[in-house]
Amino acid sequence: MDGIGGEAASGAGPLSQWQHDVSRLYQYYLDKITPHAVYRWIGTLFIVAIYALRVFYVQGFYIVSYGLGIYILNLLIGFLSPLVDPEMEVSDGPLLPTKGSDEFRPFIRRLPEFKFWYSFTKAFCIAFVMTFFSIFDVPVFWPILLCYWIVLFVLTMRRQISHMIKYKYLPFSFGKQKHGGKKPASSVITSDD
After folding, report:
1. Is residue 13 domain-resident?
2. The total number of structural domains that make up the chain
3. Contact 116, 91 (CB under 8 A)
4. Is 32 exposed, middle or buried (0-12, 13-18, 19+ CB in 10 A)?
5. pLDDT tens digits for 5-33?
6. Residue 51 is part of which domain span?
7. Which of 31, 44, 72, 128 makes the best surface tag, with the fewest CB within 10 Å?
8. Which residues are within 8 A (CB) of 30 and not within 5 positions of it... i.e. 6 or more apart?
9. Which residue from 82, 109, 110 is spatially nearest to 96, judged by alpha carbons?
10. Is 45 a residue whose pLDDT tops 50?
11. Is the pLDDT of residue 171 over 80?
12. Nearest to 67 by CA among 51, 91, 49, 47
């Protein structure tokens, strides 16, 4: 007898080890691309273009695209929302300033950029795979779905923008001042001549 479980446990060992190795390799590459946001988003735009071409080519899967659009809208709301919503939660942690005299606190997203990118990309990959199965190609009149999604997007964004104005926060760092801080002593040039 070679331990608890006998032959059944040793048969699951190589499969479990392979799954663990694949998971570690996947996580390794995710960790490697984390700091390269621009290249990650360029790759994602390439995946989006492939998906759009696939849907255009087969002239179908509009329900899949509509569901994908609703999911992306949900991700966008999480990306644009603060971690602690002043309307919903009372917290002892950092809150958004509501008056001009309030102390500055950095904007912390409910859904960080990397998780937003990862979920966004994964959603398009799953939707792309779904376009190869005819069970997901439900015949619908796509202009109605598109109009409904646009109305939903406008109403949701209007609510989100009014929330941003009410609590005076901007979820993007474009145009904000960046403080350089003090320069290290090694960068000061001295002449010893």
Report:
1. no
2. 1
3. no
4. exposed
5. 555 544 568 888 999 999 999 999 999 99
6. 21-171
7. 31
8. 118
9. 82
10. yes
11. no
12. 51
Cα–Cα distance measured from residue 106 to residue 108, given in angstroms and rounded to the nearest whole number = 6
pLDDT in tens, 104-155: 566 778 889 999 999 999 999 999 999 999 999 999 999 999 999 999 999 9
* pLDDT surpassing 90 at residue 99: no
In a domain, residue 122? The reply is yes
**At 176, which amino acid appears?**
K
State how far the Cα of 100 lies from the Cα of 188, in Å rounded to an integer.
38
What's the pTM? 0.73
| CB-count burial class (<10 Å; 0-12, 13-18, 19+) for 157 | middle
189 found inside a domain? no
